[in-house]
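> forwarded from #structure-qc
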């Protein structure tokens, strides 16, 4: 496996010339880009010209991760040429959140094949319910396939996200990369670091990822009472106070964290990136900066566990935009600790997202998360 990283900025262009000699059907090109490049696709045309045979994938972000730095108005790129593994790229359109489960079926059908070991998903961040998307992929793919990835971002605007579809930025798309081969090794880690506060409240009315009532009261009005003056900045300020969701009677596993994507004043509802199951228990969360940063290190350590010694590794971090807003000037500390805990021989790229996809536990099923740092480490034995 041969790895190189690169970065593009509007003012300086490519940091180094594009390594066209790495082009081939076993080469993956990941490009995580500021949303503004959706209106200026020239860098993606250059990638397509340099890597016509390669599998190119990418999406808009709420911040681009390259090594130990977090940038805006840039494109963070990793080029990985595999020696013993095959790649396959699948696309599907998604009309709205209710199409998410069917979209998962369509992707799984395109990726079906012998030797599938892992799938990396990059999805539209505003028209998708990540929970049924991931559940559908899990049901229709072979048991044991690791599913990771994230939902595209748009900074804190929540207006428009896009995914690279055959080299061009396109809205309402989902891309999934299949990795095939017995010599492929994929590690994963997922940690949050947030703390619960306030009373638990029962989700008394919801539909998919839309929450209407908590304890029989309008969800938006109740949520605004917690935010106080910050409520004027919704949905963006909602990133600072996510909800933990626990199914009643759940005996094992951590609650799932959910972040607000939108609000509806008329219906007094909140729309989240994943399911808000009726009958579950929700509780407000808040952040401790040190715990957030430490959790990123734990995620990287878990992902690096059992990685082949001395082998090159592609390290992909997907962290939530809410974490970036909370950490502020300390944001790069969580990226630095990932770099410290990841395999030494690697290229580290990633992005800040509207939702993270990863197994919660080692050997467990994948799920849609919010407000987490997820780390995926891909290498070959």
């Amino acid at each position: 496996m041969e790895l190189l990283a690169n970065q593009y900025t509007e003012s300086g262009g490519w940091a180094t010339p594009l390594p066209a000699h790495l082009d081939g059907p076993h080469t993956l090109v990941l490009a995580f880009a500021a949303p503004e490049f959706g209106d200026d696709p020239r860098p993606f045309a250059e990638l397509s010209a340099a890597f016509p045979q390669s599998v190119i994938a990418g999406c808009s972000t709420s911040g681009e991760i390259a090594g130990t730095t977090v940038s805006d108005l840039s494109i963070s790129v990793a080029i990985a040429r595999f020696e013993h593994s095959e790649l396959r790229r699948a696309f599907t359109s998604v009309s709205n959140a209710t199409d998410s489960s069917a979209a998962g079926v369509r992707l799984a059908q395109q990726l079906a094949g012998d030797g599938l070991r892992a799938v990396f998903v990059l999805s539209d961040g505003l028209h998708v319910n990540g929970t049924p998307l991931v559940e559908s992929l899990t049901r229709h793919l072979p048991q044991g396939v690791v599913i990771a990835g994230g939902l595209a971002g748009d900074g804190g605007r929540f207006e428009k996200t896009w995914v690279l579809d055959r080299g061009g930025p396109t809205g309402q798309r989902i891309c999934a990369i299949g990795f095939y081969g017995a010599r492929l090794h994929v590690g994963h880690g997922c940690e949050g670091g947030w703390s619960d506060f306030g009373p638990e409240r029962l989700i008394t009315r919801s539909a998919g990822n839309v929450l209407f009532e908590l304890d029989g009261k309008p969800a938006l009005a109740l949520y605004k009472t917690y935010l106080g003056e910050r409520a004027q900045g919704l949905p963006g300020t909602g990133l600072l106070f996510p909800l933990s969701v626990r199914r009643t009677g759940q005996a094992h596993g951590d609650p799932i964290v959910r972040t607000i994507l939108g609000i509806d004043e008329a219906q007094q509802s909140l729309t989240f990136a994943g399911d808000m199951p009726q009958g579950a228990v929700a509780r407000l969360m808040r952040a401790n900066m040190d715990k957030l940063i430490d959790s990123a290190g734990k995620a990287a350590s878990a992902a690096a566990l059992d990685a082949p010694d001395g082998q090159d590794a592609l390290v992909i971090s997907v962290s939530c935009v809410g974490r970036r807003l909370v950490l502020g000037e300390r944001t790069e500390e969580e990226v630095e600790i990932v770099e410290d805990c990841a395999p030494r021989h690697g290229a580290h790229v990633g992005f800040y997202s509207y939702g993270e996809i990863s197994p919660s536990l080692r050997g467990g099923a994948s799920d849609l998360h919010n407000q987490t740092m997820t780390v995926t480490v891909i290498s070959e034995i």
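QC bot note: Helices lie at 42-50, 100-111, 130-140, 219-227, 289-304, 321-327, 331-341. The first strand starts at residue 2 and ends at 9.
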